[in-house]
Amino acid sequence: MSLFLLVLIPLLPLIGFVINGIGFRHIPKGAVGVIGSLAALGSFAASVAVLLAFKEAGSQPQIVSLFDWITVGELSIPFSFQHDQLSLLMLMIITGVGSLIHIYSIGYMKHDEGFGKFFAFLNLFLFFMLLLVMGSNYVIMFIGWEGVGLCSYLLIGFWNKNTSYNNAARKAFIMNRIGDLGFLLGIFTIIATFGSVEYTEVFRQATGLPIGDPVLITITLLLFVGAMGKSAQIPLYTWLPDAMAGPTPVSALIHAATMVTAGIYMVIRSNVLYTLAPETLEVVAIVGAATAIFAASIGLLQNDIKKVLAYSTVSQLGYMFLGLGVMAYSASMFHVITHAFFKALLFLGAGSVIHAMSDEQDIRKMGGLRKKLPITFITFFIATWAISGLPPFSGFFSKDEILAHAFEHNKLLWAVGLVGSAMTSFYMFRLLFLTFFGTFRGTHEQEHHLHESPASMTIPLMVLAVFSALGGVIGIPEALGGSHQLAEFMSPLFDNSRQANPEAFMPISLSHSEEYMLMGVSVLVALLSGIAAYVMYISKASVPAPESETRQGVQRAVYHKYYVDELYDAVFVKPMRTLSNLLASFGEFFIDLFVDGTGRLVKALANLGRQTQTGSTGYYIFAMVVGIMVILFWNLLIK
Amino acid sequence: MYPIVLLSVLGIVVLYLGFLKSKSILLPATLLFLVVAMIGNFFEWNDGELLYFKGMFAVNKLTLTFNAIVLFSAFMIVAMTQGFQDNEEAQPAEYFALMLFSLVGAFMMIGFENLIMLFLGVEILSVAMYVLTGSDKRNLRSNEAALKYFLMGAFATGIMLFGIALLYGASGSFSLNGIESFVTLNQRSPSYLLYAGLLLVLIGMLFKVSAAPFHFWTPDVYDGAPSIFTAFMATIVKTAGFAALFRLLSHSFSGIYDFWWPTLSILTVLTLLVGNIIAVYQDSFKRMLAYSSISHAGYLLIALTSMTKQTENAILFYSMAYSFATICAFGVLIPVAREKSLEGRPNESYEAFNGLAKNNPLLAFVLTVSMLSLAGIPLTAGFWGKFFVFSSAVERELVWMIIVAVLMSAVGIYYYFRVIMAAYMKEGDTATIRIAPFYKIVLIAATLLTILFGLAPGLFEAAM
């Protein structure tokens, strides 16, 4: 029964994909949305059932082997699912948030001609994402990893009539390929070192290795390169803001709540390896902190509602990696969960705004929408409050936990995180104020058209708002009188780490007063930034300058995203183009010569060989006799 | 053992059913009988190693798996015959009975423990094939093919019988065990009688699986025989032939591996070259498939030549993948050739496939998957078949052989993709071809299995 349910989880979205993918030309729109959403909801129900059964059975991790997948020499890769605390948490996020976004899409994509295709892709994405987190070895994870990358590519370029969207899709794909290369090399190194890709086997062997073993550092760094690509960390983050070309539900599901957290999932899954490689963790923490502050600073001056959220996602992912780097694995997972709620909510809210504004995304043209879109406004407000880390909403608990660990580990990292947090609060409130407060700045036509979104869109918003507000209860720290259920739930995942590197893996040693102090500081900073945003955009009612105005100094650099895209273009893309042009004009000649020559040779040989087939039986038998004679003579007399 | 008894009896039943006025019962009855035989086959699944007829015939997991592949292929081919209802001249009862009898021969080739059994099996299978090749009585080429096949088959049979006699002369035994103990006793002092006998038996068998230089009959016979029987020949005869070769070489003659592998390796390379290179020049899709079957005999011979632990699994998987893909290829060829017939004859050239995808997306898709599998493209069963074959050769360090094989599979892509390109890219007007539902199901099932085993080759082992 458990096996059946477990298989059902990824199978349902796959079935949904097959039905909608094959039949989207024939199935009516209403049915497409229902089939797609039911697949997601069914998968969610199965996940809940599996979670309950898991708890009932005493929370023991289980590996369910489906069949031997690939056996080559000594290496055997089974196709099996592992369900434990980590994969179950991910399952809940993916299927839960996924279901809501499916339902939302019914309303949001209603007028789109690619409706069926869209739902087919969404279901396919769910399937691969579930495979990624359910597999019991790195190869299945890699299949999922590549699969979600493919779906991401397809969905970013969903409106493929627009060339710049296609370019964005290509960029995402290529950037991810760079990361994938690292990930693959990491898997190969794992195979070469441990002779297996099964998590349990790899981790069992890894615990026997000394701390800081070069092999482990190599493996973890390579895997982290993969995470950098998928989870958009410096230097591979530039694809994520461009990925906003995709429909908004896609941004919410793939580029905020689930796929981009695959890197964090992977690190937590491999926590033993990382715990044993402190040097790598150092790198992870620095990259995470740098990304957190860097992306947040770009977010300060963006004027596209989705771009702000995109940079915010990059920055929040940076926080999660910062948490991983200081070995606050469960705190990072906590942030993954709360972030999934409030960031999905923000994107869906943004989608609702864009829907109402007839596809306008520039916040300079919005304003005063709170009266026209009350539900969207309230839910968006809750999410803003949550992401800014203000109590009592969920973001406060998860972000503070990461910052507390960072503080204990390294004061500088904490300070960077704090500055990033201040920026987060500022750009989020700026976004909120510019969009929903003040006076409407759009065209008359848009104003006339303004309307609250249909129920299929607002209900997911409300559900997510509840979770964004209350999601923090699963991880209330002891200092605030809670028991941090999440950390307790996840604790068995880190048994191996604890055993392998007990010194590094110590519980937080801050006193309660210190914790109160840290919380106080971060809340204060966030509040102050929020107030600053209020002063600027409500009291002074200033609006960001239009595109045409030239900006000066630092502001100019930030506005243009520090020219990173231009830099990559100049350093990588252009030389590559030149080289490929050179090869095309020069190398092609020789290659053609070789290829055509081979073709001609084979053809000539074939013509020659064909003539042996005369059609005369006598000749055939003669040839056979000659063959027999040669074989016998050679074997019996000559050899 | 059950399938042999069952099909011998049920074959006669089919002949009697032929007396009925209505011929429409024959096809479902034959299919049912094949299912019965399949069930019978699994009765001995868990019985381990069994011996029958005073040790002349063996039943074990390996033979049962080969039987299953053969039966499954036969089921699909019989399902595609459509009962010969569109042909007034046809004698469906006799064809079906002959097919069932020939399967009995195939089982004997798979399970023999005694050379007499092997000989009997080869003859039962071959004689039925000679007749089926010539079953299109009004067609001159079918008659010519049957006669050619018979003449050359008789020649090869003679050679093989002579080899068996020499083996008996050397070892004083017909049984695999007897020969094996003789071989191990006399490993140091070579017996030329034994060597000559082995070579002649091998030549006889290589003729049946159409390895070069004993392949000359293949293109002419495959081309001349009615397509449905060509499919039968290309899959069942080949699978049974390789099962027999494997049992012979892995059992009795593994002690003198050093003697036979050089000869076999040279013939392997020759087969690969002949099959793949000549296939390039063909204009007829059916004739190309004949050369393709020669080339696949070459790949299977690689596994045989390396004869490692992996060989058994490699041959099983390869025959399975090859059979499914070949059946699909013929399954598409038959309706297309009929639709495009020229002057009353089916048109089997590449041109017949031009523009097939436009109105017949399913047929084009099935064709594409089968061609990809035959070419050994990843995500199809054919890829893993080649992979297992090559990895067994790697284990023996026969690198030069793999180089030839890989180059030749590159050549293979040329002629396999030609028909895909014709179906999808060339201009042509093929009306929507009506296919019976059951025919369609068989095609889809074989295609899905090809993809499934391409995604998860482990499933095949798990099923065993």
Word description of this protein:
The complex is a heterodimer of chains A (639) and B (464). Chain A is mostly helical and 639 residues long. Chain A is 72% helix and 3% strand. Chain A has helices spanning 2-23, 29-56, 85-108, 115-134, 138-156, 163-194, 199-206, 214-230, 239-242, 248-257, 262-269, 271-275, 278-299, 305-325, 329-356, 374-387, 394-409, 411-436, 444-449, 455-470, 485-490, 495-500, 512-539, 553-559, 564-610, 617-638, and strands spanning 62-72, 75-83. In chain A, α5 (138-156) packs antiparallel against α10. Chain A is globular, with a radius of gyration of 28 Å. Chain A starts with a helix and ends with a helix. The model of chain A has no long low-confidence stretch (mean pLDDT 87). Chain B has one domain (2-463). Chain B contains 19 helices and two strands. In chain B, 60% of the residues are buried. The mean pLDDT of chain B is 91. At the A-B interface, β1, α25 and α26 of A face α6, α8, α9, α11 and α19 of B.
Reconstruct the topology from this structure.
The complex is a heterodimer of chains A (639) and B (464).
Chain A: H1 2-23, H2 29-56, E1 62-72, E2 75-83, H3 85-108, H4 115-134, H5 138-156, H6 163-194, H7 199-206, H8 214-230, H9 239-242, H10 248-257, H11 262-269, H12 271-275, H13 278-299, H14 305-325, H15 329-356, H16 374-387, H17 394-409, H18 411-436, H19 444-449, H20 455-470, H21 485-490, H22 495-500, H23 512-539, H24 553-559, H25 564-610, H26 617-638
Chain B: H1 2-17, H2 26-43, E1 50-52, E2 57-59, H3 61-81, H4 92-111, H5 115-133, H6 140-171, H7 176-185, H8 192-208, H9 217-224, H10 227-252, H11 257-279, H12 285-306, H13 311-339, H14 356-359, H15 361-375, H16 381-395, H17 399-424, H18 437-455, H19 458-463
Antiparallel strand pairs in B: 1-2
Helix pairs in contact in B: 1-2, 1-4, 2-3, 2-4, 3-4, 3-10, 3-13, 4-5, 4-10, 5-6, 5-10, 6-8, 6-9, 8-10, 9-10, 9-12, 10-12, 10-13, 11-12, 11-17, 12-13, 12-16, 12-17, 13-15, 13-16, 13-18, 15-17, 15-18, 16-18
